[in-house]
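Thread amino acids onto this structure.
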């Protein structure tokens, strides 16, 4: 099941690559059905899907005959070029593009593909892929099914999903935006796998269908059989075909004309009205990060578990996706994740409230991510208070605490370096530094705005503050990112706190040292001196982007001007 939402931000050619790679998986053809869910309802996607089907009729047999390991078609340029040209020609057709606009798209629920697939194939297991993630090995589904069908394992009856790590084909060797998400997929998900399994991660997972329907692990199929038809329709809607699929695991035998009519019915915008879809059935609507919330509330709290299928170092990644190569896209993406999870943490569905149901360690794992955005406030304090004290010639650290500060900082940094090096299987000092820098940058940008968005939403003044912001998958190849240079093009207000704090820190460092040189009194300011120098090193790309670069990807002039004004105001008022 491949999901896409916008043909402008998610290029149609790339989406079709993912669809075709899924069709070429090493799995019995009669048992494999590929669905493409286009939330935009774009005719471009429909036309491209037809061309992809025609291309797949040659590509899939080719992969099976010659045992092609990577089924993504863009790895075979000669066969792929004609298909790509046809799709791009359609995308450039002005008449076709005018048929669909953002204003013309209708809002509809997120469960269309689940219900339609129940009428067509009704497979008990569903593999979910985002539009930017393609199958990198043909055996990925077989690997997932080994877990689901293992009757001797510890998850014989309660396994809801198999989660694959998100890995990316365009990650730079000098990953300045920490796009690799190493801390999640190479460290923490492995730890959660030792409990009841990792958190549902949005893409690259093989899901048991009845688990997301709201069933519980023990005899889940019998739960629906024991319900009255009226109760089933109250929960799942009035489609007789869909109700029949709940009571039978076999493939649909509905006649073609009736199937088309019923599929149109369950896909309609108003189908869910008066049902439990989004509340007790399917992916839950109460959060913008529906994967995180559904995994916790719909699956783990009902007794389900999961496993993490991480490839061995000698094996290729099962799936490969694309990372954003523009800083603004990265920050907006992180803001969306942080605001969605914080909203869950501050709601009545707080993970800590379910500690008895899912175990204390597992609930703490969910709560860590729910409240991660709150890192913004201690980081904000460390980025302002010591700077203002140092500017005035004072100290914000008690004398006795300097040694403790150094010990805590050193031990924390060493732990981080060990984690990175273990994940990379080598000493990875550059990755450690990139993660340190982006963690601080994200704290005062994406996380800070996430807290603001959730706060406004809680008091009813948020409006569209926590709306879904789609990350663009259309890029120019990310030349600057691949070269290890920050791309500030298109940066919005979300960058403003970081640039302001950068200028505040550098101004306080220079002015404070100058004052101490003039007065001849240094005092015990080693803690502040180290902290300000460390922040200056972390934020150097921002300073460079504001004043030392002249290329189009520099920090926008208006952000630089606003940052200078705000930093000067802070120094004037509190310095």
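Threaded sequence (575 positions):
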């Amino acid at each position: 099941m491949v999901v896409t939402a916008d043909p402008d931000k998610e290029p149609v050619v790339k989406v079709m690559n993912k669809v075709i790679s899924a069709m070429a998986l090493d799995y019995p053809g009669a048992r494999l059905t590929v669905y493409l869910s286009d939330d935009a309802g774009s005719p471009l996607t429909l036309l491209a899907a037809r061309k992809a089907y025609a291309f797949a009729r040659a590509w899939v047999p080719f992969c099976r005959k010659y045992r092609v390991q990577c089924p993504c078609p863009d790895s075979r340029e000669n066969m792929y070029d004609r298909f790509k040209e046809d799709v791009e020609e359609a995308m450039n057709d002005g008449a076709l593009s005018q048929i669909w606009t953002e204003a013309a798209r209708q809002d509809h629920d997120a469960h269309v593909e689940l219900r339609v697939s129940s009428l067509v194939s009704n497979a008990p297991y569903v593999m979910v892929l985002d539009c930017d993630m393609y199958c990198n090995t043909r055996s990925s589904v077989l690997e997932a099914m080994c877990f689901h069908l293992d009757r001797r394992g510890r998850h014989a009856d309660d396994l809801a999903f198999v989660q694959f790590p998100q890995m990316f084909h365009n990650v730079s060797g000098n990953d300045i935006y920490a796009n690799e998400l190493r801390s999640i997929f190479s460290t923490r998900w492995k730890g959660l796998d030792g409990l009841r399994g990792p958190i549902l991660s949005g893409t690259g997972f093989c899901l048991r269908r009845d688990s997301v329907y709201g069933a519980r692990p023990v005899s889940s199929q019998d739960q629906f059989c024991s319900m009255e038809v009226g109760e089933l329709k109250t929960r799942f809607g009035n489609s007789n075909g869909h109700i029949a699929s709940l009571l039978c695991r076999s493939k649909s035998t509905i006649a073609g004309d009736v199937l088309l009519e019923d599929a149109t019915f369950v896909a309609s915008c108003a189908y869910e009205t008066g049902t439990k879809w989004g509340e007790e059935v399917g992916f839950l609507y109460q959060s913008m990060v529906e994967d995180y919330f559904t995994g916790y509330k719909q699956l783990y709290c009902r007794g389900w578990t999961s496993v993490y299928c991480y490839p061995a170092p000698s094996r290729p990644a099962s799936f490969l996706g694309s990372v954003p190569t523009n800083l603004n896209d990265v920050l907006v993406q992180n803001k969306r994740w942080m605001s969605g999870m914080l909203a869950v943490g501050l709601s009545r569905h707080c993970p800590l409230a379910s500690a008895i149901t899912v175990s204390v360690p597992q609930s703490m794992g969910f709560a860590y991510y729910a409240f991660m955005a709150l890192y913004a406030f201690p980081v904000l304090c460390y980025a302002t208070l010591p700077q203002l004290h140092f500017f005035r010639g004072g100290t914000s650290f008690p004398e006795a605490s300097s040694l403790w500060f150094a010990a805590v900082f050193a031990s924390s940094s060493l732990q981080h370096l060990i984690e990175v090096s273990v994940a990379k299987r080598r000493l990875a000092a550059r990755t450690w530094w990139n993660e340190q820098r982006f963690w601080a940058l994200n704290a005062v940008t994406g996380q800070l705005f996430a807290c603001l968005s959730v706060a406004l939403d809680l008091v009813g003044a948020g409006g569209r503050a926590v709306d879904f912001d789609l990350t663009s998958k259309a890029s120019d190849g990310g030349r600057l990112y691949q070269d290890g240079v920050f791309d500030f093009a298109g940066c919005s207000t979300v960058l403003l706190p970081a640039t302001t704090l950068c200028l505040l820190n550098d101004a306080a460092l220079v002015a404070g040292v100058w004052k101490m040189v003039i007065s001849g009194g240094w005092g015990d300011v080693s803690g502040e001196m180290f902290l300000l120098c460390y922040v200056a090193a972390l934020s150097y790309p921002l300073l460079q982007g504001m004043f030392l670069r002249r290329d189009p990807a520099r920090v926008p002039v208006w952000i630089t001007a606003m940052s200078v004004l705000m930093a000067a105001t802070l120094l004037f008022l509190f310095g």
